[in-house]
Write a sequence for this structure.
């Protein structure tokens, strides 16, 4: 019997060594989410440390003729939505009695958010990062070091998020008795996709209320970039039951796990991924390190198949142009990841648009 | 050695063009079972040596069809059980039932899937793995579903040589014995004849992979000698 399935996707495709830890994590999560003290502490951290709620900003000059609202996760502490997840998982790690944290990072935003909570909770922190990403996201490496994390370079394969994730999981297999794996996206074996989605759902729930307040109605479209898919699933979570709200995910053109992928198994879950006909995983490519990943969260594969969400893509050049345009028209420098979502806004057949601006672009300068 | 209490030596080799020669050499050296690695691009259970061997095998074109062909050619050379060891993504792509059927008709006697715990695809009859972290319940479940023998992962960790035999093996053997009469073969971290002897004293057999791959790079004769040095201690 398999657990944690989103339709045909999800599951636990990991070595047996990890199964008891996943059972333990699932039990702790089920208990925590029903525990008012956990919820209160998380809310307190999200507001007093994170700076929530993050505002909605109307971007009139960027999107003339539309009412485009940006959900400003770039204004969250550490500069991206990743902190929503790391704060929650740090509380879970503490409940589990684990004081060593391992994580993977691509753009470095999840690494920084993990290092931040580890500093605050007094946890040992090891972050795996591909050699190519270390180079292109150097400011975030400096931040992780300053926050006391050990950054381990992964220099095989594509030297990006894909191998960093594999190495983080191998570390977890080796140190599972003492270590919590703080995964950064809605990927991985059950219960991780569910945990990350629920911890990021604050984006969508807040944005729904804020949008109603601003416009007196819901957006026609909610759009977000998709790498592993955590900011998108967090945004979508606020609108899944609102069938009139169209959900759009934007992948990087050469990392379109949903657009051009096939069903396969990577990093512990069955999902849609870039793979060849033999099930060997293919290289992804993106200017945005956070989207440069051949897999995607299983719930996105499910939402694609069910038709509830639609997934499109943007090229490196389109993302770069949107990045510059938002800076010039709104005075906001976005990360290259949400710049992919920004690149598709003008073509949406909608006036009222909500977009998750998942992070800020200082790292990409 | 009393009949029925003979210990078993399992040797892991990566599928490749030269592998049928290596399988024959391993069997000449005393291997009782050969595991044949079907390489996967992202092998979570493997340390650097087997991961790199998989990368090389894929670079030389060892995709599923080529691996099945390698298996069939090894089958022509030896009579011992041959067991493909691979990852779920290959079976997803090829089809679980089809993979099982084609592997068996190419000469496989069973199958090991490193990232397919007993709960996933229980219909696929295969050798199950248990680890030091497995609960007694999970050991019982794995034993109930396993195909012939039970693979005891001696360490919490990935494949690869260790300095000494894992202190966790004794406890795992004891718990597995309480759950099942199936034969118990210990693997992960066993590389020297001394490790093999110590592990075989506890379990019913040992699996050697990483070190065998390293020795196999020096050719069939070197592999035969190495396997012989293990077999002397195990049998």
């Amino acid at each position: 019997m398999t657990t944690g399935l989103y339709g045909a996707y999800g599951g636990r495709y990991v070595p047996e060594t990890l199964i008891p830890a996943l059972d333990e994590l699932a039990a702790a999560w089920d208990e925590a989410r029903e525990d008012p003290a956990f919820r209160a502490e998380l809310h307190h951290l999200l507001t007093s440390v994170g700076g929530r709620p993050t505002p909605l900003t109307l971007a009139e000059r960027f999107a003339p003729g539309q009412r485009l609202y940006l959900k400003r996760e770039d204004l969250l502490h550490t500069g991206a939505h990743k902190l929503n997840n790391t704060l929650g998982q740090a509380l879970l790690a503490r409940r589990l009695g684990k004081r060593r944290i391992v994580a993977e990072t691509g753009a470095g935003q999840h690494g920084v958010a993990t290092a931040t909570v580890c500093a605050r909770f007094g946890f040992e922190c090891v972050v795996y990062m591909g050699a190519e990403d270390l180079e292109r996201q150097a400011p975030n490496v400096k931040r992780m070091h300053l926050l006391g994390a050990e950054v381990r370079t992964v220099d095989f394969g594509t030297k990006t998020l894909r191998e960093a994730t594999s190495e983080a999981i191998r570390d977890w297999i080796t140190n599972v008795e003492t270590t919590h794996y703080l995964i950064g996206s809605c990927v991985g074996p059950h219960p991780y996709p569910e945990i990350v989605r629920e911890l990021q759902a604050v984006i969508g729930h807040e944005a729904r209320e804020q949008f109603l307040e601003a416009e007196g109605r819901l957006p026609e479209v909610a759009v977000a970039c998709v790498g592993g898919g955590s900011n998108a699933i967090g945004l979508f979570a606020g609108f899944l039951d609102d069938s009139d709200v169209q959900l759009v995910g934007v992948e990087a053109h050469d990392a379109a796990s949903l657009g051009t992928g096939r069903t396969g198994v990577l990093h512990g879950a069955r999902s849609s991924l870039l793979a060849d006909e033999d099930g060997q995983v293919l290289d992804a490519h993106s200017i945005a390190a956070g989207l440069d990943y051949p897999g995607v969260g299983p719930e996105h594969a499910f939402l694609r198949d069910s038709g509830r969400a639609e997934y499109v893509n943007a090229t490196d050049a389109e993302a770069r142009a949107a990045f510059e345009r938002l800076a010039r028209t709104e005075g906001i420098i976005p990360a290259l990841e949400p710049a992919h979502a920004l690149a598709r806004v003008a073509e949406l057949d909608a006036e009222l648009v909500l977009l998750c601006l998942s992070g800020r672009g200082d790292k990409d300068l | 050695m009393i009949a029925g209490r003979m210990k078993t030596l399992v040797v892991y080799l990566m599928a490749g063009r030269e592998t049928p020669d290596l399988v024959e050499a391993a069997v000449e050296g005393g291997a009782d079972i050969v595991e044949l690695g079907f390489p996967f691009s992202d092998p979570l259970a493997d340390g650097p040596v087997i991961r790199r061997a998989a990368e090389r095998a894929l670079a030389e074109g060892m995709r599923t069809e080529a691996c099945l062909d390698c298996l069939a050619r090894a089958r022509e050379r030896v009579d011992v059980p041959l067991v493909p060891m691979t990852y779920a993504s290959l079976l997803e792509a090829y089809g679980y039932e089809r993979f099982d059927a084609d592997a068996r008709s190419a000469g496989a006697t069973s199958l090991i899937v490193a990232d397919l715990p007993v709960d996933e695809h229980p219909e696929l009859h295969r050798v199950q793995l248990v680890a030091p972290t497995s609960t007694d319940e999970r050991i019982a479940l794995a034993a109930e579903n396993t195909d012939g023998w039970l693979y005891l992962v001696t360490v919490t960790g990935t494949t690869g040589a260790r300095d000494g035999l894992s202190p966790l093996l004794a406890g795992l053997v004891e718990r597995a014995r309480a759950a099942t009469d199936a034969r118990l073969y210990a693997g992960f971290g066993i590389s020297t004849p001394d490790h093999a002897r110590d592990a075989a004293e506890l379990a019913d057999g040992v699996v050697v992979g990483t070190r065998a791959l390293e020795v196999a790079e020096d050719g069939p004769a070197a592999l035969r000698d190495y396997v012989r040095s293990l077999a002397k201690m195990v049998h």
Q: What stands out?
A: Chain A is about 40% helix and 20% strand. Residues 186 and 192 of chain A are 6 Å apart (CA to CA). The interface with chain B takes residues 1-3, 11-21, 156-157, 162, 166, 169-170, 173-177, 262-268, 270, 275-281 of chain A (CB under 8 Å).
